[in-house]
Design brief:
With about 170 residues, this protein is of the alpha+beta class. Helices cover about 15% and strands about 40% of the residues. The strands form two sheets. A four-stranded mixed β-sheet has the order 1-5-6-8, with no helix packed on it. The protein has a four-stranded antiparallel β-sheet with strand order 2-7-4-3. Strand 5 and strand 6 form a beta hairpin.
Length: about 170
Amino acid sequence: MKRICYLLGVVCLLMSSCTHHNDGPQSETRLPIEEIFTPAGMWIEESDADAPFFQDISRKLFVVNSADELPDDRLGFSDTYKKADFKNYTMLIYYQLHRWEFESCQYLYLRLNLERKFSWTITMKVAADEDTYPGMRCISRFAIMVNKIPDGWDVTATFGLSDYNWSWEE
């Protein structure tokens, strides 16, 4: 009887060690986006794209915790932005100067646990050879609401392009 109990104990120990394999803390966590704002854009002449306003705002991320912190932009903010729930959420706003017309975009929002920062990836879906408006550029604004970002954590934004056949799920 002792041998059977001992054997069962060893088997249970081996099985539990296999199912509780742990490589340490998870390096990243996919987080929910609480609200997605419709991207806004404005087409401008290519020569105007070099203007200081467009150069200063392009590829820039704003971490907004109150309506007073909304950036000054030429696209304007509706009441949806101004009356957002800043008590519980942080609004992330990103601007990109580009030449593509897009029909949709996908977002991925991650917490990078080891680096103590958040990462927002914006991917525009475009046609591969698209140049709809030659001599023009578009300044686009992308915005989302996420759970309040804790003090001391950085936030980065990454912008990319994909064709219509690409998916996060692949």
